[in-house]
Specification:
Layout: E1 5-9, H1 13-25, E2 32-37, E3 41-43, H2 48-53, H3 58-61, E4 62-64, H4 65-68, E5 74-78, E6 81-85, E7 90-93, E8 98-100, E9 103-106, E10 110-112, H5 120-123, E11 125-126, H6 130-150, E12 157-161, H7 165-184, E13 193-197, H8 209-221, E14 225-227, E15 232-235, E16 239-242, E17 246-249, E18 252-255, E19 259-261, E20 277-278, E21 291-293, E22 298-299, H9 312-331, E23 345-348, E24 354-358, E25 361-364, H10 365-395
Parallel strand pairs: 1-2, 1-9, 2-5, 9-21, 11-18, 12-13, 12-18, 13-14, 20-22
Antiparallel strand pairs: 3-4, 6-7, 7-8, 10-19, 15-16, 16-17, 23-24, 24-25
Helix pairs in contact: 1-9
Amino acid sequence: MRKPKIVILGAGYGGIITSKKLEKLLKSGEADVTLINKHEYHYITTQLHKTGVGTAADRQIAMKIPELIDPHKTTFKKGSVTAVDVQKQAVHLDDGESVEYDYLLIALGFDIETFAIPGIKEHAFAIRSFRSTKAIYNQIIRQLNLYKEDKDPSRLTLVVAGGGFTGVEMLGELVEGIPKLCKKYDVPFEKVKIAAVEAAPSVIPFFPKESIQYTTDVLKKFNIDMFMSTKILECTPEKVVLENNLEIPTRTLIWSCGVKGNPIVQNCSLPIEKGKLPVDSFLRVKGKNNIFSIGDCSLFMKDEKNALPPTAQVALQEADVCAKNIVSTIRGGSLKAFEYHHKGSVASIGNFAAVGKVGNFRLSGLFGAFMKQVIEARYLLNLGGPSLIIKQHFGFSKEPVKVTANQ
């Protein structure tokens, strides 16, 4: 009897955890599972700000996929997806190869939303992936070196656009890491300027006012210039143009202002809503009983008007239910409806401060930073057990991950 073929597209949080769950749920020889990803590594998205400033080793953030999966149960294939042929049930890759499937999971993640602002796509540095944050790091080093030649102050001005969790964490990491880089490259840190730009009235506007005030106070303590209620109108290689006739001379705009579904889903001959794949309560793409989608490229409506946010927490919870539903579909069993349970959120502001909310409890300061570390450790535990936690803290390779870091 022919074994069904399960193909997973994307090895982000949703894809990698679904593959790990399938390894536990499927019986030996029950199905062939193939995991396809454009890179050979899985990266911890919530730690990308560390890569951007070089405060963590590459292999602490980006882990080799073949070392995370069971090669006897899951086949890993490196390749970029170009299209999905729903009629022939095949995935097309950039090298011309086609991979057939009986059951497909699309977990291709997100792309950056630029809101059609002139110059953002061409000149801003996005916090999008491991590769893109390596580009941020390389840009910072390049500008430090060039400053020594021409003393242009715009080279030492770093602007972070977006005051959500990602932007706040990037700001905190810059404060932690830039002094060390300045010392290493013999550049005066007192000449460095860091600015935050946010269109909303404050950073983390979706949080309680006490948390907003705490975060604002910490950032101001670090001498970060705050441009709140201010939109970016344009980005050029030499400056950022803001509302109210404001300009910030800078060579480095770090963009964290929004995400959208991966554009590859447009080539899947599947229904698209708001740039994403709409899914039913069982995480199946609407109208397709053998195609599932989770994470940032899927659209799961929690009520008639609101969709679940594109967060790691959502993707991880979806992965658990999705794996069970794929197995149940193969076995002809009943499917489980997905229900999201928000477990709280924590954003770090450097190594020794954080802000967050878990249930009715508001977290801040050193305890918040500790809880952030607990959350990250819990993910590593689910991904690879206690041995992975130990390896990522003490036994990781110091060898850099080879990527083409052009933005």
